[in-house]
Amino acid sequence: MLSAAESADGFGGFGLHPALLQAVTDSKYCHPSPVQAQAIPLLLQGRDLIAQAQTGTGKTAAFALPCLHNLEADQHLPQVLVLTPTRELALQVAKSFERYGAHMPRLRVLPIYGGSGFRPQIQGLRRGAQIVVGTPGRVMDHMRQGTLNLSGLRSLVLDEADEMLRMGFIDDVTWILERTAQERQLVLFSATMPPEVRQLSGRFLHDPAEVTIATSKADTQRIHQWLLMVHASQKRQALIQVLEAEASEATMIFVRTKQATVEVAAELSSHAYRCAALSGDVIQSQREQVIERLRSGQLDVVVATDVAARGIDVERITLVVNYDPPLDAEAYIHRIGRTGRAGRQGQALLLATPRERRQVQAIERVTGQRLEVMELPDTAMVNDRRRQRFKERILSALDGADVPLFAQLVKELSAENNLPAEHIAAALAQLMQGTQPFELSHQDHLPRPSSRRQSRPVAANMERYRIEVGWKHKVKPGNIVGALANQAGIKGQSIGRIHIFDEHSTVDLPRNMPDDLFATLRNLRVVSQPLRIRKLEGSAV
Ligand code: AMP
């Protein structure tokens, strides 16, 4: 175990209270993140601040630590007010304050948000909450009815300001800002800086310091972003194939409508995913339960609308699927920010139909990077995963199974009918499987929609060739590599990407292939099929 001084080394230079440094050590943070390194000194100086940083950058600690440092322990009035767009975020931010303030005696943090009773909130305020984290509507309600006294306010933080404005809270936020004393420190954190956020900042912040943490940098480091082009009618099947092939710990799927959350969740449940739908229709207590179940591993997939998913911070989420494209590029940034939490790696997939190319381009412009095109996972990969999941399901069912009873029944059945136990197990598996085929067949595998993009770019110094063997001929990449290496003498390491399609495949080979080698290849056969190799036009880089 590192001592506070050692592990909080990078934090030591800020001059933060030792109780806070201890909490940083408890949290196992070794170095301040970029937003913390920049924002903490400015906030400790008492400056107003406008910071562009998205979730996952450590922004909460960037404002929570200085706010806690400046707290008057003996003053039992709200000294810090944080406004958040959602209840989930309010709860999370309140938890973070509690964590960072764990070694500060008598610290009182209170989340206040709509959809939950007034009475406990009023009691919490009366008991002397020093840090209040709330959604704008409920904060206004308390201010109006005189239960939230802001006369001792030192700092006011607008967290995820762009989200707050996008959700229509501009009037509420303005109302609150107009009714707080001019001397309080005002801090604005936002993932993006649309004009409305700039206007708000121009009107209320005094000579603010500015901190910008490039979004794309944070993303590229931790979130691998993919694009899969599909036709609208094939989306569900594509989603299932992707989920089956990707070994994701927990997955968040974004859809456009409430109805779609229910439909997609039902479809996934029918494929044995532990899945739940989350939309504005789901009542608050249930929403919290769903998030808790996702966090604890009782659920693997949550299908949500943008509004319902805001502020979710679950480290297990390793894949975000944009099943329907987001309304704009900024929403995309918020969605993919649900993965890659706490410095972990994440993957984000955007399913887009050929008509949605423009939206894809807009996203690429804003994030400043091109999405990597994903091939639909091939049939063999999907089936491998199905087998694996089948075994996992059975092993996990063993945990809660009444083994003596069922083992006895199987024994009886076996003896009475002279049946091997495997056959009985097979019949049970078939019952469990129902009428759905267990394996994905090549016919079910979705063809790729035509796309102006190459499936994956041809590497430098390579050219792409077409060969006339495909799934239909039961070819595997190993057959192609084997034939090229053994029969034509091409070294394994100079054989590039291979893509197998229904009727044909492509293979990338070094540029400027000698004529005699090409002639040899023309005559090759793989899985008894003549390759009839030919160069694809425009394939060279
Ligand atoms: P946030 O951007 O505030 O949502 O924080 C994202 C995640 O990063 C949270 O799980 C924090 O606990 C974690 N975190 C914050 N600061 C640091 C740090 N300096 N080092 C490592 N992890 C951190």
Could you characterize what this model shows?
The chain has about 550 residues and is α/β, with parallel strands linked by helices. It folds into 4 domains: about 5-210, Rossmann fold, CATH 3.40.50.300; about 215-375, Rossmann fold (3-Layer(aba) Sandwich); about 380-440, no CATH class; about 460-535, Alpha-Beta Plaits. The protein is about 45% helix and about 15% strand. The strands form 4 sheets. The chain has a 7-stranded parallel β-sheet with strand order 3-4-2-5-6-1-7, with helices on both faces. β16 and β17 (about 505-510) form a beta hairpin. α4 packs parallel to α5 (about 60-70). The structure holds adenosine monophosphate (AMP). Adenosine monophosphate binds near residues 313 and 343.
Write the layout of secondary structure elements.
Layout: H1 4-7, H2 9-12, H3 18-26, H4 34-44, E1 49-52, H5 59-69, E2 80-83, H6 87-100, E3 109-112, H7 118-126, E4 131-134, H8 136-144, E5 155-158, H9 161-166, H10 170-178, E6 185-190, H11 195-204, E7 209-212, H12 215-222, E8 223-229, H13 235-245, E9 250-254, H14 258-270, E10 275-278, H15 284-296, E11 301-304, H16 306-309, E12 317-322, H17 329-336, E13 346-352, H18 357-367, E14 372-373, H19 379-400, H20 403-417, H21 421-433, E15 462-467, H22 477-487, E16 498-500, E17 505-510, H23 515-522, E18 525-526, E19 529-530, E20 534-535
Parallel strand pairs: 1-6, 1-7, 2-4, 2-5, 3-4, 5-6, 8-13, 8-14, 9-11, 9-12, 10-11, 12-13
Antiparallel strand pairs: 15-17, 15-20, 16-17, 18-19
Helix pairs in contact: 4-5, 5-6, 8-10, 13-19, 17-18
The structure holds adenosine monophosphate.
